[in-house]
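INFO batch 0412 | record 1 of 1 | parsing
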Amino acid sequence: MKRNYDKFEAAINFNPTKRSQTMTIQDLNKRIEEGGLTVPLYQRGLSWNDDKAIALFNYQLFGKAPVAPISLNEIGTHDEVPQLNFISREQIDGENQGKLSVVDGQQRLTTNYKAYSNDSSFEKIALDLSQSKFRKRKKYDKNQVPVGILFNKDQKVLQDYVYKEWSSNDATELFPILIGIRAKILNYSYTIHIADNMTEDEQIEWFEVLNNAGSKVSLIELSLSKLKTHDFDIYSEFITPYKNMVKMYDFEELFTPFSSNVSYPIASLNPAIERLFRDGKHSKNYAPIPSDTKERQLLKLSKEELNRISCLTLENLKKALDFITNNNLKEYANKMQYVMYLTGYYILANGIQENNLVDWVKDTKFENLSNGQRREVYMNLINNIF
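INFO prediction complete | emitting tokens
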């Protein structure tokens, strides 16, 4: 029997590493500034906290092995994935052919660029001279040099800072050390893998392979990027306000790992979907947990319907956060599930029993529960079974 080896022969003759190269952090920062690097819309919700950024700075300075490569796709005729300006994170109108879209490495690039551009969100991250490491600043300390000063695109900013903060003798001794650290980081070389003209599905497959178990997150992100066709930006209209409200109530640390930045808010929409479009009837796989997100259903909703479920969820998220705060329950509500379940309770429960809710928060534990057990906890809650 004659076999067809065309697929094997095509694979043998194709070298995906032929465009691999190295670029310094300085080079990458300049490309970002010039608009040569873009971010695909499906990665818009991914972001690191300060601890992750600090860990990267420390490893780039002290690490004994290179940081993982950056993976880019040079956009060609397959320009179906909406792209964002790397700096403003606003969607780019028009063609993007010839630009390099970040498939993997966005957070490393963003972290280094924020220091280079002295972004205000990094003002509390500094090099601690007394402890010889990067760390978070809690208050002003002369021995802590902010990364936005140390790695600033203009070296004179660092020079002026050092000679202002220290005596002339101390500054003359310290400045060469800081210049050496600055030079090492800005000249730090990343291996860059560049692919040509990948389709949307090929980019997602590459992203999933590079991020190992991150497929659920990437599929959610990809689906959400398609909501742009509904003229509804779910990030600005819902996800960002959701995260900002959680942050305002000082619950931001519950958003871990980074995958939760999108999956938690999207899972929190499930109760509103049931209230508005399923007559308030609960099905067990509509619990507000990341494994039950309904991104495909979201794609079927109109702009008006998306706005309704977003507003209803945000309104009741505030009720949940107020309840936890007003009843001094924060020490018990140490996982985001408490906030998400209470949000769903305020949306779906027939008759609010806040006295019982206090005991529920204190007594309920989410550690080591399977998804099935988490669904059962939620079903009992919204049915006022305490």
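INFO post-check: The chain has a mean pLDDT of 89.
INFO record closed
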